[in-house]
From TrEMBL:
Cross-referenced Pfam families: MazE_antitoxin (PF04014)
Source organism of the structure: Caproiciproducens galactitolivorans
Keywords: DNA-binding
Phylogenetic placement of the source organism: Bacteria, Bacillati, Bacillota, Clostridia, Eubacteriales
Domain SpoVT-AbrB: 1-33
Name by which UniProt lists this protein: SpoVT-AbrB domain-containing protein
GO molecular function, one term: DNA binding
């Protein structure tokens, strides 16, 4: 990938990229590896296209329990 394009897309040498191939398109997207809520990068997992860390999942579960949801 040309340096000018990497610079314009803020892609660094150690960034992870995702590649998508459609009917008549080829797309490259920078993979976001941080939690979407707290930006932490440890113990991050993908849930239905969203990156969420274990700590935020645990906080969500606690909130659900406090609101009376049975888990």
């Amino acid at each position: 990938m040309p340096k000018e394009l990497r610079n314009s897309l803020d892609i660094k040498a150690d960034d992870e990229l995702e590649f998508f191939l459609g009917d008549d398109q080829f797309m490259i997207k920078k993979r976001i590896t941080a939690c979407e809520f707290c930006k932490q990068t440890h113990y991050v997992m993908n849930f239905k296209g969203h990156r969420i860390c274990r700590e935020c999942i645990e906080k969500m579960v606690e909130m659900l329990k406090e609101d009376g949801y049975m888990l």
